[in-house]
Amino acid sequence: MEDSDTKAAQSSGAPGGLLSAAREAQGISQREMADRLNWLPNYVGAIESNRFDQLRNPNFGRGYLKAYGKLVGVSEVDLIEAYEALPDVDEADKARTRRVKRAVPQVQKLGPAIPAGIMAALLLVALLWYLRGDEAEPIVVPAVTAVQEAGAEPTSPLPLGEMTEQQLASDAVIEAQGLELGSGSEPLQEQSSEPEPLSESTAVEPPIQAAAIENPAAEAPDMLSPVVVESGPLLNFSFSGACWIEIRNAAAELIYANLHDAGNTLQVGGEAPFDVLVGDARMVTLTYLGEAVPIKRRPGRVIARFTVGE
Amino acid sequence: MLKNLRGLFSNDLSIDLGTANTLIYVRDQGIVLDEPSVVAIRVHNGQKTIEAVGTDAKRMLGRTPGNITAIRPLKDGVIADFQVTEKMLQHFIAKVHENSFIRPSPRVLICVPCMSTQVERRAIRESALSAGAREVRLIEEPMAAAIGAGLAVEEANGSMVVDVGGGTTEIAIISLNGVVYRDSVRVGGDRFDEAIVSHVRRRYGSLIGDATAERIKEEVGCAFAGSELREIDVRGRNLAEGVPRSFSLNSDEILEALQEPLTQIVQAVKSALEQSPPELAADIAESGIVLTGGGALLRDLDRLIADETGLPVIVADDPLTCVARGGGRAMELMDRHTIDLLSTE
């Protein structure tokens, strides 16, 4: 049976035929050939009859052919050509060794107009993203700056460390309602409504600002300084202009948040390090443990977020 | 976020960051870059600038003036110069995306030597990230080589891969998507070149460069005593006279010169076989050892290993690109089946 397969392969010019012809010409038996190649005896027969599926790993068909061909002196190129001409060899096997010399970038395939369109869309997305990023930053509302003038009464020191956030929000609104707008500002039309309980700490500021804007009867405190909150190392702020400030302690609890105006000073203590957010870094100077702390801000931005006492 | 946006215009890459050559495989496109891992640096007023990378830089090796240094930033399969490797990767990634109109930020899979340390792997990862990759995965070279050679790594069937690279030879026995045994010897194509240089200096009293040694290895180098005899004419600088001289080398001399590194590789293969579990050893005896890597192109290396071990030895198709191709295939497999072929750093 095996011999008839081999003869059929020889007549068809398949790789097995080339190999068996070369082997027989040298007078070597299949067994001897298997020994020389360190193969299992049945592998020689399987390859000579082109039954590559009988190999343990059919993917090695080319490797076995090359090793056999080298030993009996058959050209590797001829063997591989004959192997690829076999009907059983699938396309995936042929493609496996094909090397692509030149990359065709995906963008090139799209044509010139499509990348330009994508680029425009990208720019638009980037612009929107940039603008959205600006809005997300805490903003010092001009109307609020008018509320607090130098000489206003000191407001409550706002020891926020132990307050709930709802308390913080409602207190802030009450405080703002009690303020009076400065002479240069125009009264607003609407009264503030009841503040709603807040769930996130970041939502603290809008009620404060909103209430301050909406309340025409609010009175500005004469002076916000000095304010001392908690014990421990003190952060000393002095303000040369209107600036919102938020301070969080080491446990990320909001310990202070308020708006200050020119001439105010503020002292806040607590557990270091402090995470500080200032609405206008140009208007604030900070000293900590007797040393001036430079406030860095991103180019073109007035808002600064930084950590003190690390 | 920008990296992700740029990633839309980048191809997933599999990089074989080798000591001698760096190859990049792109999914659906094949091997798109195959260049020497060489960088030429120009020093001007104390400022270092990249003069050339890859093939251009390799031409400069040994031919540079005082202010240009051509260096190989990888040694023994791992990073020897972090900054230069980063620049080289940056250059290659950009070259693969050269028609792209925005800076690429691809997902990258890099093949690392199996015995590399955590620090060395982290260095490779960081280097690729700094070069602009948005995500870096690592895979052990023998695993990538096995996948590239078409071995059924996912089956409960032992397969042995010997990847003879430029700086190291990696030996691994693989079964069920995992490496059962791994070993790495710091012998590879570079050691072959060094052995040839040293042989020529000893025998002929002449000095030849690495590039000449590589040419000798490719043209007449062989690993087995019964191979066909070949000759080559080379020119080197005679050490005694100080002038260039021509002389002929034949393959038997080169075989003699390569004995020491070849013995180390054979010993490592034998040691792997000794330590493999018996079931896996039986599988290997049946299907054979697969040779991959540029070193597998050394004439009759397969015959030497077959002769020494008594096992079938098969040279993989296109052994130079096996690792990079296997890496690309591994990336597809990992995306499709979320299987873990990776060493986690």
UniProtKB/TrEMBL annotation, chain B:
Residues engaged in binding ATP: T19, A20, N21, G166, G167, T168, E214, R215, I216, K217, G294, G295, A296, L297
Q: What is its main location?
A: cytoplasm
**Compartments where located:** Cytoplasm
| Any Pfam family the entry gives | MreB_Mbl
Query: Which keywords does this Swiss-Prot/TrEMBL entry list?
Result: ATP-binding, Cell shape, Cytoplasm, Nucleotide-binding
Quaternary structure and interacting proteins, as annotated = Forms polymers.
Q: Which family does it belong to?
A: Belongs to the FtsA/MreB family.
Q: What does this protein do?
A: Forms membrane-associated dynamic filaments that are essential for cell shape determination. Acts by regulating cell wall synthesis and cell elongation, and thus cell shape. A feedback loop between cell geometry and MreB localization may maintain elongated cell shape by targeting cell wall growth to regions of negative cell wall curvature.
Q: What HAMAP family does UniProt report for this protein, alphabetically?
A: MreB
What is this protein's name?
Answer: Cell shape-determining protein MreB
Organism per entry: Candidatus Litorirhabdus singularis
Q: Which gene encodes it?
A: mreB
